[in-house]
Automatic annotation (TrEMBL):
Name recorded for this polypeptide: NAD(+) diphosphatase
Required cofactor(s): Zn(2+); Mg(2+)
GO MF term set: metal ion binding; NADH pyrophosphatase activity
Keyword terms, alphabetized: Hydrolase, Magnesium, Metal-binding, NAD
Keyword Transport found: no
Family: Belongs to the Nudix hydrolase family. NudC subfamily.
Species this protein is from: Sinomonas atrocyanea
PROSITE patterns: NUDIX, NUDIX_BOX
């Protein structure tokens, strides 16, 4: 495959980044248990049957207790480093006449500190980010500006993710994914007519031919390759900085199984033939629309040869070698927000953060 279709690189690590909210949750993300990935236990109830009702969303946004997350130009409104949850019914009518999507209901038992348990959450997509009144100063404040806390700032998952709790992280990933899809799929793929949003934001329908179009997610595999001596194979992608070593990854092609995609990508990128392929867990990565499917695979090959286009360097590490290289600052590892880091640390047997922090 070409480098242009490669999934966007996952964020690089800031050594010593505190991600305490992601640690020790005791929840499961497939076999990447106890790791940072937003998981089933933290998921919103998306109320699929309810949201199909044409009246559902219009009624919901007028009810007390319904909370809105604002999103614009790939960023969400935050307040003090957390998602800003605003009472939906206090929003300007013109905002609610634009793109509004039902995201789901917060769980009762485990929730974010920043919204009441059981709250319904809607996504309100704005053309332009709105600044709070205090930040507008001499310019006339836009409608709704007075609703926003003074500390409001607009940020994407890569910027704010480290400070979010699991519930907020899941909400922001869902919001990002569905907003990206709407932004890139305004027209009917059959006839080109502008489509209309139905089912509380989860379907677009063509007014000309009645066809319905559903949000799209692009599966991509990501894999730790483990070779002779229990060494792991990490690589530097063409779009990564030269010190970064990460897992191999690539999109699943039409007509291909996940296992075939793993074998093909690893062979294409580093010339290594993998045998056993085990699924470990997944992570939504909506930049713009990927779902990362994490695997580990084994190989008997000793030699890895980068293809020189997608992968520039490939290197085997023992655990001691990886600890030393990361600890000395010789190499960088992927961010703890990423499934690639979770995969590496599963092979490693524990967190590597302490080693990086010690190198500072
Ligand atoms: Zn059409």
């Amino acid at each position: 495959m070409t480098s242009g279709s490669f999934p966007p690189p996952q964020p690089s690590a800031t050594a010593g980044t505190a991600l305490s909210a992601f640690e020790g949750t005791g929840q499961t993300a497939g076999l990447l248990a106890d790791r940072l990935l937003p998981t089933a236990a933290e998921a919103l109830d998306r109320r699929s049957a309810d949201r199909a009702d044409p009246e559902f969303l219009g009624q919901l946004v007028r009810q007390p207790g319904t909370l809105a997350v604002l999103y614009s130009q790939r960023r969400a409104a935050h307040d003090g480093g957390h998602l800003a949850f605003l009472p939906a019914r206090s929003l300007p009518a013109e905002w609610l006449e634009g793109l509004v999507v039902y995201l789901g209901r917060l769980p009762q038992e485990r929730t974010t500190a920043h919204a009441a348990p059981g709250s319904d959450i809607v996504l309100v997509v704005l053309d332009e980010p709105v600044e709070p009144v205090s930040a507008v100063m001499s310019e006339p404040a836009g409608e709704g500006a007075g609703l926003l806390p003074e500390e409001t700032n607009w940020a994407g998952f890569r910027e704010s993710g480290p400070g979010l709790d699991l519930v907020e992280a899941g909400i922001l990933l869902e919001a990002t994914a569905i907003a990206n899809w709407h932004a890139s799929h305004p027209r009917c793929p059959r006839c080109g007519a502008p489509t209309q949003v139905i089912q509380s934001g989860w379907v677009r329908q063509c007014p000309e031919d009645g066809s319905e179009h559903f949000p799209r997610t692009d599966p991509a595999i990501i894999v730790t390759v483990v070779g002779p001596g229990d060494r792991v194979l990490l690589a530097t992608g063409a779009r990564m900085r030269s010190t970064m070593f990460s897992t191999l990854a690539g999109f699943v092609e039409p007509g291909e199984s996940l296992e075939q995609a793993v074998a093909r990508e690893v062979l294409e990128e580093v010339g290594v033939r993998v045998t056993e392929c085990q699924y470990l867990g997944s992570q939504p990565w909506p930049f713009p629309a990927s779902l990362m499917l994490g695997f580990t695979a084994r190989t008997l090959d000793e030699v890895a040869e980068p293809d020189g286009t997608e992968v520039l360097r490939a290197r085997w590490f023992t655990r001691d070698e990886l600890a030393a290289a990361a600890g000395s600052g010789e190499i960088d590892l992927p961010s703890r927000l990423s499934i690639s880091r979770a995969l590496i640390e599963r092979w490693f047997g524990g967190p590597i953060t302490a080693l990086e922090a010690a190198a500072q």
